[in-house]
Amino acid sequence: MKRLIGICLFFFALLPSVAGAEGDAGKDYVGLVSPQMDTHRSRWFYFASACRPFGMVSLSPDTDTEHSWGSGYLYGSRYIRCFSHIHNWQMSGVAVMPTVGEFKGNRGMDAYRSAYTHDGEIVKPGYHKVYLTDYDVVAELTSTTRVGFHRYTYPESDCSYLLFDTGAFLAHGPTAYSEVWKISDTEIAGWEIMERTGRRPKNCPVYFYACVSKPMKEFVPWSEGKVISNRGRLERVSGKDAGAALRFDTSDNEVVLLKVAISYVSVEQAKRNMQAELVHWDFDRVRTESFDEWNRWLSRIEVKGGTHEQRVRFYTDLWHALLGRHILSDADGKYLDMTGDFPRIRQIPLDAEGRPLYNHYNFDAWWGSHWSLNILWSMAYPQVMSGFCNTMVDMYRNGGLIPRGPSGGNYTYVMIGDPAVSFFAAAYNKGIRDYDVKAAYEGLRKNAFQGGIRDHAGYEHNPGAHSGGMKYYEERGYVPDGRPDVEGMHTTGASMTLEYAYQDWCLAQMAKALGHEGDYGLFMKRSRNYRNLWNPETGYMQPRGVDGNWLPGFDPLELTEKGGFCESNSAIYSHYVPHDMKGLIELYGGCRKYTERLNSSFEKSEPYGFFRSPETRQGNWTDYGNQPGTGMAHLFSYAGAPWLTQKWVRKVKAAYSDVSPYGGYRDDEDQGQMGALGVLMAMGLFEVDGGCAVRPTYDITSPLFDEVVIHLDDRYYKGKTFRILTRNNSAENMYIQKAFLNGKPWNCFQFYHETFAQGGELVLELGSAPNRRWGTGKLE
């Protein structure tokens, strides 16, 4: 039974505003999203149904609760084990489960799980409804930014429970310790300590405050697998394996509502988050407001035309680009800083009305985001980019390093290099500058030398280790493989060298824009270090040993790290020079030879769906399932063959067009990066250099849609919209015949960001045969 106890306005000041920049938010973009796409082999942070854009709460059913991969909501799994509130990079917590009948909470999820059915299941951005067949319970989930809202419809029973399995093993590791206590007959609170992992090096707390709409009949605690039977007298329990249940008497089809607010700071802060965002009990209102908010965000980019499946894939990709990374700070701007020797509570600066100026975020590495999120966010969601820049600058002030993937308020050293530099360079050079630019540049420059974040290989947490190889890079211009005494993962020197060279170029662009001419010269010189890996005898980038010689046994298709490359191979990384395509093409012997070589790679991998295949190996020439190869189709334009970019971008999009639970990204979606890539390819805009040049440019290819409208944020850009129109668009008509930019004939495959920021219109006439002359003109 619902009990309406009060209504107040939501306080969503901390979500980046989309006011004044969205399109037709009245359209049902939410209905075009397919959240269950590719959930047959989910990753813990891949799926979060009842979640707001970047929401701190990412509430959804969990069918599998062990391991970072193959966990969370898996479409083919038979059982739901719990509904948990955090699906984040190396973070999890607050597992809840409704049960009926025999009490099994103390026996763990294997005992109290329930079978469920996809019949009648509803999954939308911000809402999930599913039937638990073992308990005859209908479960519904929605949320605000920091509060999970549950609606459970129970059968008649005097043994209806809500389990809070605070000591559960969730995803990345066990819960080190937890505590939960009863506040009143309708309130409980608690905290959990997420045990450190190989990626997140410190234990991390999460606190919760929960309210139910119906007074409980009994508070049932357990510890170490045993129910503590004292007829309700014990109102607090703690330990390594602890939890508590709330027991109710329910009539048939009785609704029990549950609100769970979280914080990484304290229980009191969790309660304040609830007071700021959800003081009433109107579940349908919150669900509607969640849909409305998602529609506002998704309507930033409107598309018309194309097939229904293409529109579903587009908005599902866009949803992922706005979903995977999550807010860490509270409604009043407090956040947990774990970069030092002990935890500290920090405060985000407030505006004149006492509201935080931005959010703090938890996120996986920016590795590869120069071809995805950096471009998309800077175009359509610049304030989101600003929030992440501010987060990283604060972490630099707090802990001494700009991060490449923080979790739980601390560094993880995930992946390699310093991909934050391309993020900042793109932001700054596109005019997104509302953060401490001086501190940002100072931190990025520090990262580019020994002792900076580049010097730490993946998940290397020993303060004395320097497996990133910056000593070698500074002295030799490359990082050798086979180095002694390396720690961590992803210690492949060839990948490091190529990525460091690109990152040097990005830093040089920022240095030039800031007037640091000496640094500009230094980093531009270092950006040519990619040439130190080019072997003219084989025509590939190859790893070198500590002795300076090429490593023996070279195989360009080798995908394991013994090949010298991180999560990829030489056949793909040999094209990884996004900042100097002219120089790379010269190494290959000129435009014709480069085009033939690149085209051959796509032809050989097309039968394998442009996805690596360790079994056959012949598909390993390209890979659109992982970051290092996701710019390859756009490289033809730089060799004078834009028509081949148009062809292969369309073919890659067709190969990755599935929207079913058993298709989608094929590999690691990485918190919205592959979603953002899909959006860009479908819109027909890209930036091979990641948008980091002092004067950024967009690369043009053929969109999937008749019309694309990008609504610009007037806090950063002068224009209102940038519109892309196509004529004669179809699956066969993939080739650009003519183009007009703001009414002017346009024969260059690029145009400047400053033109985009002013607003305008790009018209593309398409045909079934390539126009090999279009796009070959110079950028004016």
Automatic annotation (TrEMBL):
Keywords: Calcium, Glycosidase, Hydrolase, Signal. The keyword Calcium applies. Residues 33-263 form the Glycosyl hydrolase family 92 N-terminal domain. InterPro entries: 6-hairpin_glycosidase_sf, GH-type_carb-bd, GH92_a_mannosidase_put, GH92_N, Glyco_hydro_92, PNGase. Monomer. Gene3D superfamilies: 2.70.98.10, alpha-1,2-mannosidase (1.20.1050.60), alpha-1,2-mannosidases domains (1.20.1610.10), GH92 mannosidase domain (3.30.2080.10). GO terms for biological process: carbohydrate metabolic process; glycoprotein catabolic process. It comes from Candidatus Phocaeicola excrementipullorum. Its EC number is 3.2.1.-. Residues 269-767 form the Glycosyl hydrolase family domain. Residues 1-21 form the signal peptide. It comes from the Bacteria. Pfam families: Glyco_hydro_92 (PF07971), Glyco_hydro_92N (PF17678). Its cofactor is Ca(2+). This is GH92 family glycosyl hydrolase. One of its GO terms (cellular component) is cytosol. GO terms for molecular function: carbohydrate binding; hydrolase activity, acting on glycosyl bonds; peptide-N4-(N-acetyl-beta-glucosaminyl)asparagine amidase activity.
